[in-house]
Amino acid sequence: xxxxxxxxxxxxxxxxxxxxxxxxxxxxxxxxxxxxxxxxxxxxxxxxxxxxxxxxxxxxxxxxxxxxxxxxxxxxxxxxxxxxxxxxxxxxxxxxxxxxxxxxxxxxxxxxxxxxxxxxxxxxxxxxxxxxxxxxxxxxxxxxxxxxxxxxxxxxxxxxxxxxxxxxxxxxxxxxxxxxxxx
Length: 183
Fold this sequence. Notes:
By secondary structure, the chain is of the alpha/beta class. It has helices at 2-8, 15-18, 145-156, 173-182; strands at 40-43, 48-54, 58-61, 64-78, 83-95, 98-100, 103-111, 116-118, 121-122, 125-128, 133-135, 138-139.
């Protein structure tokens, strides 16, 4: 009986049996059911890239990149061995390694517990895990509303309501001004 069941199963050759294909040496994780069909590239630990890196697929970097990375419509993952010294532009950026440089994402930046970022982050959503290292500033304004929001608040607010450079609290600006003017 066992032999009948085994014989009924179709035999599919393993990838090793068919020999190396055009993508050998490139790690491509499987895409889960229900997700869009996306190519995923990988840059290994021993690879060093200096210059501009552009692409039209999701990318995982375990090596070193210096310069500029642009994957504006795709996910960029900096693996735990990745060391990046670059300006980064992507849809989603996941940091597990180290990034020195500014990161701009159209959807989200996520710094995992093993990740470190030194630079400014601009994205509508930012997640920094406990244990992650971050040094820089975060701008979570939605794209296109950053400048218009500043203009509207500057035009609509009376001059006294603006925060003072001397460190006074915004609500106490009027009283603080009178007190310091009396001294």
